[in-house]
Specification:
about 0% strand, two-stranded antiparallel sheet, Hydantoin permease, about 75% helix
Length: about 550
């Protein structure tokens, strides 16, 4: 089948979802009010709370939630065939992720910019809030530790990506000062900053940067991990307008260009999809499609991490409540397009079915390298760019998005610790510096405690990310459903996705539990069991609150 067919179908459906379905959700379900005073105005401090242009905020939200996951997940899931991955990405983007991300922004804005975990105490119960915050902190620690490993490994494997990646920080700082302190209109900083980012890719090729093979007993990769967490500590404490916003915004522009380049190359070259539509000959050891597909592809279809960003940083910067649709739903739509083009790249970027089968000879070994290989081939076939330059471009793009997700993740961990300090009346935890150092210390303890001098400890518990992340998405949708019941609004549009994703995630967690037991991974098995038990308790508490509020609404 020509790749242009699923590309056109996917783009059309996602566009229709934004223009029609998200409008219905905004007007009839969440009932956005343009006159409502958002926390960005009511609690403005120009550090975390600041009214922001919705385009800039969309860039922040988009790149903070995108990261590398919408590339890695679809690239792995295509082993079951491209059609199941395609259907889940498109349906998930329209009916699951858009409603989830949009709803998390709306719920937080209506509650002083508090995180979805903190809101659980008001909406469900104090006990559910405590359990929910534990799951959230565990997930954030996992994400930050693993993304630091991913970026450090990329720097070691591709020294030419170092200068472009760090140059983005300098460009972001300049853009932040120009826009917020000098009042320069956003157009020219955007154009010049984007040109600089692409220009330094050539510079990176000419001047690759490598750290010493060994320094104080640490290899190059763990050295990069420490440097990254030092940077993340500083970035977490800086005002959002100075680094986080402009960095995410300019990376968002870069992703739009990258998506345009990839889809344009698909339309120009129109390669054939060589991967099977449904793979009946999966390699030995591949887990079953059901329910594993729905936790393998998280970001790009539905992700609990998005709710943390939406209610953690995005809601604190929303200028008008009506901007929530543009930022939240359109942000998830952009990520759906990234997942879609990844499916096309790893399905049509190979010369033959045999070559594809060689690459997909084992489950879980594909990811960013497969995306870069297939995507660069399509780009070189459909544009004048060489395959080598296209590969560097796509690799740098993936590293930059992993970096923006790590930036947001550490800041979110700080928020969680500060919320603990507020909830449990522990003044020392309310301090931003102490909360940040605590968050980074937890990530480093995981990285080097479980991984030794290699710093790869985050990878040890990464297999639990998919199920933990999707259970968190189900819990967020459940909290939104309880809020809608309290407001006497239709909750079916959050409840149906909640039931589906929670069911699939729960069975995936049980499958994983049995698999870990058979493989003798008792530490991971214990952690998986803890996550399952915590999720069950929160679901039971939330279900009780939902029933209680539903009866109260019916009685009134």
């Amino acid at each position: 089948m020509p790749a242009i067919v699923p590309a056109l179908i996917g783009i059309t459906l996602i566009a229709l979802g934004y223009f029609f379905y998200s409008k219905f959700i905004a007007e009839k379900i969440y009932q956005l009010d343009p006159e409502f005073e958002t926390p960005a105005h009511a609690l403005r401090d120009d550090i975390d709370f600041i009214p922001t242009n919705r385009v800039v905020l969309w860039g922040h939200h988009f790149t903070a939630v995108a990261g590398a996951a919408p590339i890695i997940g679809p690239a792995i899931a295509v082993i079951w065939g491209w059609l199941p991955a395609f259907i889940w990405v498109i349906a998930g983007t329209i009916f699951f992720a858009g409603v989830h991300d949009f709803g998390a922004v709306w719920a937080s804005v209506r509650n002083e910019g508090r995180s979805i975990g903190s809101l659980t105490g008001d909406v469900v119960s104090h006990r559910a809030r405590t359990l929910f915050l534990i799951v959230i902190f565990f997930l954030l620690m996992m994400v930050n530790a693993v993304f630091a490993v991913s970026i450090s490994n990329a720097f070691v494997a591709t020294p030419s990506s170092v200068i472009p990646a760090w140059s983005a920080i300098a460009v972001a700082l300049v853009i932040g000062v120009l826009i917020y302190r000098m009042g320069v209109p956003i157009l020219w900083p955007t154009i010049i900053g984007t040109i600089i980012l692409y220009a330094v890719i050539y510079l990176g090729d000419q001047v690759p940067v490598s750290l010493p093979e060994t320094f104080m007993g640490l290899g190059a990769a763990p050295q990069w991990i420490i440097i990254l967490f030092v940077y993340a500590t500083i970035a977490s404490l800086l005002p959002v307008w100075l680094l986080l916003q402009p960095r995410d915004y300019i990376n968002g522009i870069q992703l739009i260009i990258g998506l345009g380049l990839l889809f344009g190359a698909v339309f120009a070259a129109n390669p054939d999809i060589v991967a099977p539509m449904y793979n009946t000959a999966v390699p030995e050891g591949t887990p079953p499609l059901l329910p594993l597909l729905f936790v393998t592809i998280a970001c790009g279809a539905l992700s609990g991490f998005h709710g943390l960003v939406a209610s953690g940083t995005t809601s604190k910067q929303l200028d008008k409540e009506t901007d929530a649709r543009f930022v939240g739903y359109l942000g998830s739509s952009g990520e759906g397009l990234l997942a879609l083009v990844t499916i096309l790249a790893v399905s049509a970027g190979f010369a033959s079915l045999g070559e594809w089968q060689t690459t997909y000879a084992e489950f879980g070994l594909t990811g960013i390298p497969t995306f870069v290989e297939g995507g660069s081939q399509i780009v070189s076939d459909g544009t004048p760019l060489s395959k080598e330059f296209a590969a560097t471009l796509l690799a740098v793009m993936a590293v930059l998005f992993a970096g923006t997700t790590m930036d947001a993740g550490v800041r979110l961990q700080r928020y969680i610790i500060q919320e603990w300090g507020t909830i449990y009346k522990i003044p020392v935890l309310q301090n931003g510096y102490i909360a940040t150092f605590g968050a980074v210390a937890a990530c480093l303890a995981l990285a080097f405690g479980a991984g030794g001098r290699s710093g790869q400890g985050g990878m040890a518990i990464w297999p639990l990310f998919g199920t933990t992340n999707q259970l968190l998405a189900g819990l967020t949708l459940l909290v939104l459903s309880v809020m809608l019941v309290k407001l006497k609004r239709r909750y079916i549009f959050t409840m149906v996705p909640m039931v589906f994703v929670t069911t699939m995630s729960f069975f995936a967690a049980l499958y994983q539990l049995w698999d870990l037991f058979n493989s003798g991974s008792y530490f991971l098995m214990a952690l998986d069991l803890v996550v399952i038990v915590l999720a069950i308790f929160v679901i039971l508490e939330s279900g009780s609150a939902f029933t209680r509020e539903k009866r109260a609404a019916e009685a009134s």
